[in-house]
Amino acid sequence: MKRLLAALAFALAANASASGLADHGEDLFKREETTVKLTGFFRVRGDWLHNLDLDRGTTPSGRPLYPVPLGDPTAQDLFVADMRLRTDLAIYAPFAAAAVKVRADLVDDLVLGSTPALSPGTGTAPTPAASPGQVPNTLLRIKRAYGEVLTPIGYFAAGRMGNLWGLGMYANGGDCLDCNLGDQADRLAFVTAIAGHLWAFAYDFSSVAPTQLRKDSQRSLVFDPSSNVSSFTFALMNIKDPLARERRRKAGRWTFEYGAYLSYRWQKNDIPEAYLVVAQPRALTPSSVMERGFRAGVVDGWFRLQTPLFRLEAEAAFVLAESAQASLIPGALLRDPVQAFQAGAAVELQFGTEADFFTGGVNTGLASGDPAPGFGAFPPSGSTPTPGELDAPQVDVPRDVRVDNFRFHPDYRIDRILFAEIIGTVTDAFYVKPWARARLLQFTSSQLGLKVDGTLTRALFASSTPGNDASLGVELHAALSWDSKDGFDVLAEYAVLFPLAGLDNPAQGLSAQPAQLGRVRLAWRF
């Protein structure tokens, strides 16, 4: 058992930025006194966005594909700069293999200049600013807070923690310098090592029904447990730590790793009045509760093959879901359930390693689609499926009761313009992305590198595109990076999208024109 627990410890990650079921525990060992470790980064980014509406007119709803300047809708350029200060704090208890970890984003994607105080007599000092979705007048956003302990039978964690699996195509913790979102889970997790594998079990408090204060006016009470959304996940993994993989590669050996997880989510009842905007709010009563009958299952498999010459890594996920009653109005029931069958896959092939002067490879992926108009990535509120729209709901009860488009996690980015900015994520599409990276200059503690890539994308259903054509576009991208071991990095990148017929506007007789993006990022890592 000691050997298995040692395998568990070394297979799991080392700091508070750990995100997944396979990313905890390596740093847990007995210490003589309380130890505190702080890591994180500060980044500042500036974006130049040119013609992201593609000069192809508006969709049937009257909206362009991308926002345009309000003062001059014919103008081409938008500019924005933002910043984030991320801190990952780990507090290790003495005399035990236990820790408490916290991720706090002190400034979270704050747009520079968005909240200045410029009234006479106040000077130009910015006021306390809030990131999107935060309580006003606060800069602090707690992303994660959880405790963990390594016991003789395995690893146990409880609290709000990151959620990452495989390549991050479906579940992504958002730990990279340019990530914007990241998944967090209110979770109880247990991982143990048996027969050379890691076995993980997790229960998630995915969502709870409305709460009310208890007698002490401090604690809250969930007063309808039947409306809670719960999830249970099981994962089986055979993985190595990065040092072990590198040792085996240098010794000319192959390393094969793999994992699979099954997740099931369910909700019996629902209280739509608790989260929908209503004209006249009223107190919740038993009549506010309605049957939902929601259930969803996810099967996800991942593997990585590392050889002395190349790395091949792939992930595939399948989602089955059903909502027995999709109505949001108590008493107004629908006859047919809404169902979904979605599938997505991503493959990464890399020749060489990060230490080599030149590396290259090809990435490819596919996300299942739905024949309904629009991509269904982030449908605008109140919209309906309309041919010619860029985005729209994929369900139109009672005529269409299926939602079959799979959505990649937005932090698993394969381009800079089409999916990252215009559509929002990869869905209802197939892509191929060859790439190459070269080290131009090498110094003792820093290096200058250049990466170039090109992405060809096609929709799976022509009916989903604004131009009613499966061909979406070709995007070229180049990035020049200065990476330093001292903790300061600079990235400058440029991308151009050449749109194809799927982004044209046949109703107005307009062809989509190229779009461009430029970005500069400064990052301080600690």
Q: Which series of helices and strands comes N to C? A: HEEEEEEEEEEHEEEEEHEEEEE
**Counted beta strands:** 20
Average pLDDT:
87
Shape designation? globular
CA distance, first residue to last residue = 36 Å
Helical residue percent?
under 10%
- The tally of helices reads 3
Look at the helices and sheets and give the structural class: mainly beta
Low confidence ranges? 1-16, 120-137
Biggest sheet details = 18 strands, antiparallel, barrel
Radius of gyration, whole Å: 25 Å
Strand fraction = over 45%
What would the keywords be for this entry?
526 residues; 18-stranded antiparallel β-barrel; 3 helices; 20 strands
Explain what you see.
- This protein has 526 residues and is mainly beta.
- The protein has a domain at 1-115 and 128-151.
- The chain is 5% helix and 46% strand.
- It contains three helices and 20 strands.
- The strands form two sheets. The protein has an 18-stranded antiparallel β-barrel. A two-stranded antiparallel sheet has the order 8-9.
- A hairpin with a 2-residue loop joins strand 6 and strand 7 (197-207).
- It is globular, with a radius of gyration of 25 Å.
- The two termini are 36 Å apart.
Q: What's this, in brief?
A:
The chain is mainly beta and 526 residues long. It contains 3 helices and 20 strands.
Write the layout of secondary structure elements.
Elements: H1 2-11, E1 35-50, E2 77-92, E3 98-111, E4 141-151, E5 154-162, E6 184-194, E7 197-207, E8 211-213, E9 220-222, E10 229-238, H2 242-250, E11 255-270, E12 290-306, E13 310-323, E14 338-351, E15 358-367, H3 418-423, E16 429-442, E17 446-459, E18 471-484, E19 488-499, E20 515-525
Antiparallel strand pairs: 1-2, 1-20, 2-3, 3-4, 4-5, 5-6, 6-7, 7-10, 8-9, 10-11, 11-12, 12-13, 13-14, 14-15, 15-16, 16-17, 17-18, 18-19, 19-20
